[in-house]
Task: structure prediction
Amino acid sequence: MKRRAATFMLAGCAAALLLPSGCEEKQDKGPPAVSDSVERGPFELRVEASPPDALIGDVITLRERVTAPADFVVEFAELAESDSLEVLQTSDPEQAISDAGVVWSRVLTLDPLVSGEIEIPPLVARYARKPETPDVAPKFENELATDSLKLKIRSALTSQDSPSSPRDITLTLAAPPQPRSPWFWAGLAGAILGVLALVALAVWRIERWMHRPAPPVPAEEWARAALAKLAALNWFEREQVREFYYRLSEIVRVYIEKKFTLAAPEMTTEEFLVALTRDRGALPYDAATLQQFLESCDLVKYAAFEPRREDGERSLDAARAFVDATAAAAQHAAQAPPAASEGRAA
Result:
């Protein structure tokens, strides 16, 4: 049973694979073009006319192609006149490089004038060797000629039609459209310019919004981040205690300048303390505590004092406490009512 089931499964898979290819319809590529060619040594003339079966009023495309060596030139002869065909257009000859040499080609557009089997007269192409100088005209003494091509041209009339008694027109022809006035085109141009202006304005605003400057970071947030970064480095283990205290005091001085617009980084400790003494309301903090902190930093920076790790941690905690206390005092002063502030000032 298992072997039989496996056999049925294999047969089903094979049928599924073969069914699409068996049932696949062949695509209709249309009727082939009527063609003819003639060869003489390395020269070849090939002509094609399509479609071979057309109605009166259809356009017949006739293609001529001559393959010749690169040191020869080719000239196409004019198509002989015919009562059954009219030449509507003849393209200029073109050249293309191929493995066999140079391919010369042109395209003729023909209009069939009668129905039935008609013939395209033989097509002739002449060739000659290129002259050595450009001002000398080539002598076309050799030529290639094809046989005539036969086409079937059908009439659009049916068995019910008679040229002597045509049928009535059953459809109504629409009136030709009226030409647009200059005001219409002016309005259309104005509308297009308005849309382009709106698009340009939108692009400008988007770019301006994308390149807007970042909001300023509050001074206390900057100081807290700088102190946290300073605390993460092992200054005492790397024996860079002096550098640690220098950066610690620098962070505090820059914070004072950012928060209270006091030029602390440009002053010495003595000058800065003197300035605070003159204006005690400039910095909402105990001046003695700040003096002790700054002088302890100066001892390490300038007096070669060797502090311990515990001393450095206490100095770092003092800097954090200074930032928190002054930031809270400044926020409280900003939120206080104007009347209360005036009463305290009095």
